[in-house]
Amino acid sequence: MIGVTGTPGTGKKTIAPRVGHLLRIPVLSLAAIAVGVAEGQGGERVVDTRALRRRYLAVSPGRAVVYGHLLASVLTKTEAETVAVLRCEPRTLKARLTKRGYPPEKVRENVEAELIGVVLDGCVSRFGKEKVREYDTTTGNGLGVARSLAEDARTSARAPARWIDWTLDYDSPTKLTSLLSERAT
Asked: Which residue of 76, 110, 135, 164 has the fewest CB atoms within a 10 Å radius of its CB?
């Protein structure tokens, strides 16, 4: 499996289908198969990841591009050939999520997660740093990222990972407070 994951708003739904097309393999959305395994709790949907894994195993088409922000909770290390973590500069991510109508608390929660690399950390812990690569989706329409990801998936000799560290851009209390405020940017 080629996994594509990232914080909400980083481009999974745009990029994963393009990667599948370029590699001529099926694409499977974890969100699509999560229907029926999520429950409402306090106005939010909580996914039963064990039930999602069972459902994934029942519909898995063999080699495919599998995408969703819960990827590290569903795939095992041996199932993942490579894992792409989509990253987006936090201020740009904040604007994307605000434009989508996310509630301010959810925007802040996801921007914080992106800032400190929560999804990246989960993927490296689950799959190992040798299988994980990051792709910056801050600019462009995703086609360049999809091409890079597909090329990396085709070749076994990949360059060592270079990790994105957004915290370096928010090195003062003023910048950090501005980023995490509920005001749109």
From this structure: 76
Nearest partner of 84 among 69, 63, 95, 74, judged by Cα = 69
* CA distances for 134 relative to 27, 86, 103, 128, 149, angstroms: 19, 6, 27, 13, 9
Residues 106 and 11: their CA atoms lie apart, in Å, by 17
Alpha carbon 31 to chain centroid, angstroms: 12
Which pair of structure tokens corresponds to residue 65?
Answer: 């591009």
Tell me if residue 86 falls in helix, strand or coil.
strand
Tokens 């395994």 found at: 37
Question: Which one of 3.30.110.10, 3.30.360.10, 3.40.50.300, 2.40.128.600 gives the CATH number of domain 2-89+119-163?
Answer: 3.40.50.300
pLDDT for 113 equals 96
Answer yes or no: is pLDDT of 154 > 70.
yes
What is the C-alpha to C-alpha distance for residues 69 and 100, in angstroms, rounded to an integer? Answer: 17
Whole-number Å distance between alpha carbons of 117 and 37 = 26
Whole-number mean pLDDT of the chain? 90
Instruction: For residue 86, give the amino acid letter.
Output: L
Dihedral (Cα; 97, 19, 167, 116), 10-degree rounding? 70
Q: How many helices (H) and strands (E) does the chain have?
A: 9, 7
Tally the C-alpha atoms within 13 A of residue 156's C-alpha that lie toward its C-beta: 0
Tokens of 142: 């995703």
